[in-house]
Amino acid sequence: MDISQGFALAILALIAVLPEYAVDMVFAWKAGHDPSFAPLALANMTGANRLLIGIGWPTVMVIYFLRTRKKSLEMGKEHSTEIFYLTCATVYAFSIPFKNSLSVFDAAVLIAIFAAYIIRTIRSGKEEPELVGPAALIGSLRPRYRRAWTGVFFLYAGVVIFLCAEPFAESLVAFGRQSGLDEFLLVQWLAPLASEAPEFLVASIWATRRQVQAALGALISSKVNQWTLLVGTLPIVYSIACGRISALPLDYRQDHEIWLTAGQSIFAVAILANRRISWYGAILLAGLFIAQLIFTEIRMEVLAVYIAFAAMILVRDRHHLLPAARMGLKFK
């Protein structure tokens, strides 16, 4: 009512991924005092990113297919913004492992991409939403009260999440050490699986109500948030913990995880280059995600498949690329 739909989705996505921010910031802070925590700093982020695309997007498409029997979904032009800035962040992410570190310069670039994305969504047109339940009650209030209550709810959610973050992160590490399980895998998959569940539930409800574009748009926006602002804040938190400007070190495992996450992301944006996602594209996303999850020794082979498929799709849809970029950059 007071802001554009794109900006509303961006804010919703930011709140939805706050658990990832909180957990990763805890590990980045601890890494500044104890280097053994450095490998865990990006684990939660890479897991959450790949879950969003590998499970979240296909789930929405499966619900859409079951509800409509349509084999593809065409996204509205307004979603070109998310797709464009996700592409920018993904292309830059491929360069990070070559430096074996995540620096403050990387933070500046990624946060700048996020800022440009937010500015673009703020300037997009407003739409009157269909409000139900508690949202309808808040929407019926006068503007200043409506905004105040909305701010209170956002603040409350953020405070609760950050208060729970450190105990949750520490319990994961302690459980891994006591049980003999790989701490990295616990942080990478168990933590984001728990934190992403509410977002997946909301997206699934929207998809069930035939608001599929909003559902997929929210997940894409979450991916933009995690791939830009979340990654960008980690070297800043690490530097503050160290007491000086420092680059968060990355080992070979984290390098591979970032490349694999970037490969999945470039394949996903290639599928959406013409703003249309098909059921078989969603199946490919899910299948490749499950393959790299189960057979960890073929992760680099899966990366090669991601890049090969992305290249083929981009060549096929090359005539859509420039118009899509223009639409993503267009200011109203």
Structure commentary:
- The protein has a single domain, classed as NCX, central ion-binding region (A middle domain of Talin 1), CATH 1.20.1420.30.
- 76% of the residues lie in helices and 3% in strands.
- The protein is built from 13 helices and 4 strands.
- Strands 1-4 form a two-stranded antiparallel ribbon. Strands 2-3 form a two-stranded antiparallel ribbon.
- It is globular, with a radius of gyration of 19 Å.
- The two termini are 18 Å apart.
- The mean pLDDT is 83.
Short description, anyone?
With 332 residues, the protein is mainly α.
Rg measurement, Å: 19 Å
Low-confidence stretches: none
CATH second-level architecture: Up-down Bundle
Order of helices and strands: HHHEHEHHHHHEHEHHH
CATH class: Mainly Alpha
Oligomer: single chain
Number of domains: 1
Structural class: mainly alpha
Helix content: over 70%
Mean pLDDT score: 83
Shape: globular
What distinguishing features does this structure have?
mainly alpha; two-stranded antiparallel ribbon; A middle domain of Talin 1; two-stranded antiparallel sheet; 332 residues
Element layout with pairings:
Layout: H1 5-16, H2 18-31, H3 43-68, E1 72-74, H4 80-93, E2 101-102, H5 104-122, H6 134-139, H7 143-179, H8 183-208, H9 212-242, E3 248-249, H10 252-271, E4 276-278, H11 279-294, H12 299-316, H13 318-329
Antiparallel strand pairs: 1-4, 2-3
Helix pairs in contact: 1-5, 1-9, 2-3, 2-7, 2-9, 3-8, 3-9, 3-10, 3-11, 4-5, 4-9, 4-10, 4-13, 5-9, 7-8, 8-9, 10-12
